[in-house]
Automatic annotation (TrEMBL):
InterPro entries from the UniProt entry: TPR-like_helical_dom_sf
Superkingdom as given in the UniProt entry: Bacteria
SUPFAM superfamilies reported in the protein's UniProt record: TPR-like
Natural source organism: Yersinia enterocolitica
Protein's recorded name: Secretion system chaperone SscB
Amino acid sequence: MVTIGSSLMSVVGNKLTGDKLNDYNMDKMLAILAQVNKTLENISNPQDRPQCERVSQQEIQARYEQGYQAWLADNYITAVEDFSWLTLHRPLEPHFHLALAGALQMQQEFILALSAYASALLLEAKSPGPVYQMAVCLHAIKRDADAREALQMVIEMSYMRPEYAPIAEKANILLGKV
């Protein structure tokens, strides 16, 4: 699993340091993400989980609620702190990584948000949501060619999947502006 994660993170790192998104084979990336998901699904025994996961579910829920309330109050610094804590204590929960990424994005910390969206994508490779938000971040940092590639990937991931039709529509609209 370390090798797979390292491979994808190096791809994401390359995206942030100048390589074109289309320099990397998207099919290969999707295959890697699917393999990561399969590996993560196989971790079902509590003793196989990291030590830091031994936090009560009540504490997790309270911390998420606190972060969410901070988000609603536009207090993104506190939201980032809470969502970061959650990603450390429940690293296999994609929605915590998405929450962290969203809070970072609201602070215009686009490169950090890209990293958090990549983590969410590693955990939930089938969802085009993180890829769409990555495109938004890429557009914000003037990486329009990469943003276009990501938006095209969102549309491909959404193809024939009615539950993703709204995000595909948003991707098409943004693609027309990028």
